[in-house]
């Protein structure tokens, strides 16, 4: 456009000068003034043509240089993108790229209280799951928490964070690798139609026992890596079936680090606000003694029990006692504990896989033993995740766990309040006095983000 404009101006100037010379010849004749004017005009015309030639040569050289720079820049971007992927560093996506990848957020995979997950395909053909976190303040906190936790970690059983996107005064987006078979809850609990899910197909079924056991080992390895092999100890703080994904080979992948917390290697415990999901919260949340990696271990143990029974640890049944109709909570771990002590552990195993006849009773007992070691109410009695891996892989003998009174588990699964009521305080006090680990002092009083959030799923 600029070249065209310059050419037009130059041609107009030359034509104007030629007309001026012709007019001068007619008016002045062959006088001295005419020759002076004619010489000046010719000089200007020559200068204009010289300027056009030089400009054309300069533009040609500039275009060649620009094409070289563009080519080199493209190669550098490709190399940089490759190095980022190799290093596991998340890419910052533009909102337009996210919108195009998800086809304007058409394929909804799951939805939670403040986040939704959509399936998408990047421009290079990579299938991804895009998590949209609504709420400016909450979204910013969760994005920072999640990126800080898993931005640079590499493990086969941990979800890969490919990138993120921040929209000013809008939602935040996290871009993950797409995991084909969805979450574990769809494979261990019987399907039931819900208003949010009946209109979109979901993968699921009944996971056979050998795959359930392998999933238990995979998750244990992932948590052991987070707790022991990272520069900073990473607490997941929301271990549950919904946050365990299954790939095309039904290998477990731990996901959703929105509630995670980093913990220094020299710290034994940290204080933070209650976060996580009822039914999986460790007793130390209520005892306010601070949390540690042992809180993840407790949640993991609760997941193991749900994998054994194919049912939720806390369920509700109709209660018509005393002529009053109502609903009563049923706590599955207590049932498993009783059957385990009686040597009748197979009675609580998921009936769907028992019928197949492919359940190894020794493995069921081992998994139950490990689960009850993990959910010991006193943190000092719980094993580390590294020890759990050794137990599950049969490298060490798993002794029968001590019988637990489960004083606090009912309080943690109570749906009435976020915190225990006055009626429960004496029980809490009694447990603490009995030895609820209050001899351990916290080495950090750092506070973290607000209350629990249910991630999109």
UniProtKB/TrEMBL annotation:
Organism superkingdom: Eukaryota
Residues bound to ATP: 131
Recorded GO CC terms: membrane
Record localization: Membrane
Pfam families per the UniProt record, alphabetical: Pkinase (PF00069)
Residue spans crossing the bilayer: 7-28, 34-54
Bilayer topology annotation: Single-pass membrane protein
Domain Protein kinase stretches: 103-398
Annotated InterPro entries: Kinase-like_dom_sf (IPR011009), Prot_kinase_dom (IPR000719), Protein_kinase_ATP_BS (IPR017441), Ser/Thr_kinase_AS (IPR008271)
Any one Gene Ontology molecular-function term assigned to this protein's record: protein serine/threonine kinase activity
Keywords tagged on the record: ATP-binding, Kinase, Membrane, Nucleotide-binding, Receptor, Serine/threonine-protein kinase, Signal, Transferase, Transmembrane, Transmembrane helix
Family: Belongs to the protein kinase superfamily.
PANTHER family in alphabetical order: OS07G0415500 PROTEIN (PTHR47974), RECEPTOR-LIKE SERINE_THREONINE-PROTEIN KINASE (PTHR47974:SF9)
Protein name, UniProt field: Putative receptor-like protein kinase
Organism: Morus notabilis
